[in-house]
Specification:
Blueprint: H1 3-16, H2 18-47, H3 51-55, H4 61-70, H5 75-106, H6 114-159, H7 164-198, H8 204-217, H9 219-244, H10 252-288
Helix pairs in contact: 1-9, 1-10, 2-5, 2-10, 5-6, 5-7, 5-10, 6-7, 7-8, 7-10, 9-10
Length: 309
């Protein structure tokens, strides 16, 4: 199956999974509301009855500076308020990935149901958690060594630049190379998770090494497919930023519009995440479970008992 055909099939699968995407968006929204609620109460306490409250936007640098100065004596609480949501989000992310990949892998034999989705979330959680730990080690090496090596390669070019243009070009190339390396690592661990579901295996270490062979053997096709979806994500993000910049900074109606636009972006971003997994599952199955070509068999006929003419 060709890459563009796999991409098209992944798009069709994502569209058919619209109810699952809506479910993921609702879970994401509920989690965000639980995390944001304490911050909202803090804003209301300090600015709710003031003129500044009508002009304030959460995340405004002036407000953040004011809050940092006012609550400078409680850094442990602030750290806990940041660290705990991050840990909960990571756990939720791992949990939901099991449901997404599990349900996509079961298509078209099984329909996507909420019960099946939640069952897959629980079934694959510990397997994906071990994959996450392995990926965490890889990311530490990536940010601690590989990206520094990339910077060291481009540093002489940047330092020796006679004007701004070569320096800007080198900096952009450095960023591009780093992003491309990051996509390779992301893609690889996606296929590890896909293989665990497709093979219904609990052997995470074995899957890590077998997927390394799988990806290396088909690297450029797999990476090209991944980048095709990545370009769609990039276009969506640029569109979101450009449109969001058009909204006025202050005013309750415009704030409501900005929040609505942000939720549309999150919904579409979840859809693209589903598309990543849908294309990877289709590619994995097309490579691992190829239907062998029929071998022509010579037809042997028994000699006729009739005399030759």
């Amino acid at each position: 199956m060709g890459i563009l055909k796999i991409y098209g099939k992944g798009l069709a699968t994502s569209v058919k999974s619209f109810r699952m995407i809506i479910t993921l968006w609702l879970i994401n929204l509920a989690f965000a509301l639980v995390i944001v609620a304490p911050l909202y109460l803090l804003v209301q306490k300090d600015f709710g009855h003031s003129l500044a409250g009508g002009r304030l936007r959460v995340g405004d640098p002036a407000w953040l500076g004011e809050m940092a100065l006012k609550y400078r004596d409680i850094p442990p609480a602030l750290l806990g308020g940041i660290l705990l949501p991050v840990l909960l989000f990571l756990a939720l992310y791992i949990f939901l990935n099991g449901g997404i990949i599990g349900r996509l892998a079961a298509l078209p034999e099984q329909k996507i149901t909420l019960a099946g989705f939640m069952a897959d979330c629980g079934k694959y959680f510990w397997r994906f958690f071990r994959v996450f730990l392995a990926a965490l080690v890889c990311y530490f090496l990536l940010f601690g060594f590989v990206f520094r090596l990339v910077s060291a390669v481009f540093k002489p070019w940047i330092d020796s630049a006679s004007n701004e243009l070569p320096s800007i070009i080198a900096s952009n190339l450095r960023t591009l190379v780093s992003v491309l390396i990051f996509t390779i690592v992301q893609m690889y661990f996606d296929y590890v998770k896909v293989s665990l579901v497709a093979e219904d295996s609990r052997k995470v270490v074995k899957a890590i090494f077998s997927c390394l062979r799988f990806v290396l053997k088909r690297f450029f096709r797999a990476w090209f497919l991944y980048l095709l979806v990545g370009v769609l994500y990039l276009v969506l993000t640029v569109l979101y930023v450009k449109v969001n910049g058009l909204f006025p900074r202050y005013g309750a109606p415009w704030l409501a519009v900005a929040v609505l636009w942000a939720q549309i972006y999150i919904l579409l971003r979840i859809g693209i995440k589903v598309l990543f997994f849908a294309t990877e599952i289709t590619f994995y199955k097309s490579q691992k479970y190829k239907i062998p070509k029929e071998v022509p068999v010579a037809v042997v006929t028994e000699p006729s008992s009739q005399p030759a003419i």
